[in-house]
Amino acid sequence: MKFPILKNKSANSHCITCKKELNDNFYVFNAGALKQMHKNYQIMDSDMKGFCSITAHLDDKAIHEHVSIAENTSMGQFEIYSCSLHCMRKFFEKVFDELANKINKKRV
Q1: Chain-wide mean pLDDT for the chain?
Q2: Cβ contacts of 54 within 8 Å, gap of 6 or more
């Protein structure tokens, strides 16, 4: 799997793991930011760009690695779809495996 999953776009149109077309039953990992306008009022803003990553700070920062999941998503929002919990779990396993691989390369 190549990271980031989303770059300059805000969603995938198929299962992130098995690539199946999505039907009426699916799971979503989403994240985003809203611009605070007033105390109880927020809006999406086209000036915002979203991102998501998993980062490791280890050994007094001698090892600093990350896996970028999403970069430069429009309006600060993004969604990653999967057809099942099994596929969503597999996706996150791949993210953490990628991070572990990067860390292990630095420790050798």
Answers
A1: 90
A2: 66, 67, 69, 95, 96, 99
Integer Cα distance of 10 and 4 in angstroms: 12
Token pair of 108, please? 């050798």
**φ/ψ of residue 98, rounded to 5:** -60, -45
57 in Cβ contact with 66 (< 8 Å): no
Output the pTM of the full model.
0.84
| Cβ-Cβ contacts under 8 Å for 26 (sequence gap 6 or more) | 15, 81, 82, 83
Q: Distance from first CA to last CA of the chain, Å, rounded?
A: 23
Tell how strand 6-7 and strand 63-74 pair up: parallel
